[in-house]
Amino acid sequence: MKTLTAMMIAMVLAAFAAAAAQPESAKSWTQPRTPDGQPDMQGIWTNYTNTPFEVADEGDRPDFYGGDVDGTGRGTGPSSFLNDTSDRKLTKARSLVVDPPSGRVPIMPWAEEVRNYRLTHIQDDWVNFTPWERCITRGVPGGIFPAGYGSGYQILQGPGYVAIVYEMIHEARMIPIDGRPHLGPSFRLWNGDSRGRWEGNTLVVDVTGYNDKGTVATNVATQRVRAIPQSEQLHAVERFTRVDENTINYEVTIEDPKVFTSPWKVAMPLHREPDYQLFEYACHEGNRAVPNTLSGGRARDRTARASN
Amino acid sequence: MRTSHIVAAALGVILAAGAPIAAHHSFAAEFDGSKPVTLRGTITKMEWTNPHAWLHIDVKGPDGKVVAWMIEGGAPNALLRRGWNKESVTPGTAIVVQGFRARDGSNRASGGDVTLPDGKKLFIGSTGTGAPGDAGGRK
């Protein structure tokens, strides 16, 4: 009898705990479904946040990661997140990187050296720019990491596919969910090869088949991880779970045994924002930064020659 | 260095103190944080382009000669959310732009505060840190 009572108390407590763990709006919220039965995540979502990508460390060099090419510490990138609407979507998380528990991405030293070279020599050659600055791609999963502007994502679903339109930099990502296999090792793509499946109400996307030209994260808001190279062994597993009317919990586990000493994980919310409008990015149209930066480097070279 | 300052003065450029501006592209690789400028001119064109908008202005120097300048702004969607729109940048509008000069010495600058004819100030630059007091944290 005592055992039964204890079990009942435990069950009641567990029920309370489960209810408490639910978001407030989820208690009366029913997962909507598309006509073909998928959990419906369609709509416009944004990823504004004030949470830093990593937990800061005293050895970090935020000015350097932001592109402080001359070491003056002036006019360089952010020490925290970029926000055009910093009064919104405040979260209490310590960092978007939730695993390892330190909140630090386990980057191998050689990869940090490659990043350092690229950032130091960005005025020397266009190859030292990230694919984002070159208007190629922000990458997968990097394209969904907050950048502070151009933060809209439109999800569309149809039979056999989930499509995600990324406002920045005008990318449309098609994710087959019909069980087809990966393309195979002979295909090497900037953004890899995405294959989705539903696990309950969670869309799980497995991404492999990357080339070794991209970077896991491109924009300044990702700080120390920006411009870190990726290898062909990069493997990402994303999980999209709509937990209430206005929130998708997004998680991604990233492994690349040539670049990181262990897998690491990012977790962050996407917020439904139906009134948000995606602005056509048309990245190349106004991308003067590459020629202007290179011409800045040539001006530097002329000054150096003149002073010798 | 001295030459570029003289040229700048001749163009009606007034050196002014100002907070550095962070940019999404490497600001320091493209612009010189030690060369702030104040440009008084009239708008000729606004390019609502990504990744950065570009504002074109004509600046008249003391000698009456008009020189075209290009001002780099933030991304269009960021500017729209901050209060910029088509009406803010009508060609012919007289404005004052604070910014930082391009490293290559050409007539380009990274834009900061823009003062409109009614005295209203709008920040046209790229958002940077979001930190209180930082230029990038302005809306």
Describe the protein in words.
The complex is a heterodimer of chains A (308) and B (139). Chain A is α+β, with helices and mostly antiparallel strands. Chain A has one domain (32-307). Chain A is built from four helices and ten strands. Chain A has helices at 2-21, 62-65, 109-120, 289-307, and strands spanning 43-46, 97-99, 152-158, 161-166, 171-176, 193-199, 202-208, 235-244, 247-255, 264-272. The longest helix of chain A is centred in the first third of the chain and has 20 residues, at 2-21. The radius of gyration of chain A is 22 Å and the shape is globular. In chain A, 40% of the residues are buried. With 139 residues, chain B is mostly beta strands. Chain B has helices at residues 2-10, 27-30, 76-82; strands spanning 31-47, 54-60, 66-72, 94-102, 108-115, 121-123. A five-stranded mixed beta barrel of chain B has the order 1-2-3-5-4. Mean pLDDT of chain B is 76; it is low at 1-23 and 128-139. Classes of the chains: A alpha+beta (308), B mainly beta (139). Chains A and B meet through α4 of A and α2, β1 and α3 of B.
Which helices and strands appear, and what pairs or packs with what?
The complex is a heterodimer of chains A (308) and B (139).
Chain A: H1 2-21, E1 43-46, H2 62-65, E2 97-99, H3 109-120, E3 152-158, E4 161-166, E5 171-176, E6 193-199, E7 202-208, E8 235-244, E9 247-255, E10 264-272, H4 289-307
Antiparallel strand pairs in A: 1-3, 1-10, 2-10, 3-4, 4-5, 6-7, 7-8, 8-9, 9-10
Chain B: H1 2-10, H2 27-30, E1 31-47, E2 54-60, E3 66-72, H3 76-82, E4 94-102, E5 108-115, E6 121-123
Parallel strand pairs in B: 3-5
Antiparallel strand pairs in B: 1-2, 1-4, 2-3, 4-5, 5-6
Q: In a few lines, what is going on in this structure?
A:
The complex is a heterodimer of chains A (308) and B (139). With 308 residues, chain A is an alpha+beta fold.
Top keywords for this entry?
heterodimer; A: alpha+beta; ten-stranded antiparallel beta sheet; 18% helix; globular; B: 139 residues; mainly beta; OB fold (Dihydrolipoamide Acetyltransferase, E2P); five-stranded mixed barrel; 3 helices; 37% strand; disordered C terminus
